[in-house]
């Protein structure tokens, strides 16, 4: 039940104020600059480190802007393609959004 609540809180936070400012900044800062963003396939690699200043990546020349959620700790958590997640500046993990590994990360993000 706690995991479901944590996941619900993350989903709500992702659609609320916590990430809206970050998304707005990314939209104005990266729109039209897909050529300056790394290819998503080159950025989102399991076990690699996600850049602390991550502002998105590109697929076929089109920008993929992140939805960033601020965790209780102040860390910023994001996902890509429903199969990768990471804290900005942290290790990238390949795990689906419904996996136990993902849910544990969401619960840790929401821990007080």
TrEMBL record:
Annotated signal peptide: 1-20
Keywords noted in UniProt: Signal
Domain of life: Bacteria
Record protein name field: Secreted protein
Organism whose genome encodes this protein: Nocardioides aquaticus
């Amino acid at each position: 039940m706690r995991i479901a609540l944590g996941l619900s809180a993350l989903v709500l936070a992702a659609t609320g104020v916590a990430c809206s400012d970050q998304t707005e900044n990314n939209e104005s800062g990266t729109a039209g600059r897909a050529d300056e963003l790394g290819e998503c396939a080159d950025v989102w690699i399991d076990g690699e480190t996600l850049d602390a200043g991550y502002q998105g990546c590109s697929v076929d020349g089109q920008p993929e802007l992140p939805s960033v959620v601020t965790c209780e700790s102040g860390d910023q958590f994001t996902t890509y393609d429903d199969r990768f997640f990471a804290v900005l500046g942290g290790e990238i993990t390949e795990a689906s959004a419904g996996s136990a590994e993902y849910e544990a990360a969401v619960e840790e993000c929401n821990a007080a």
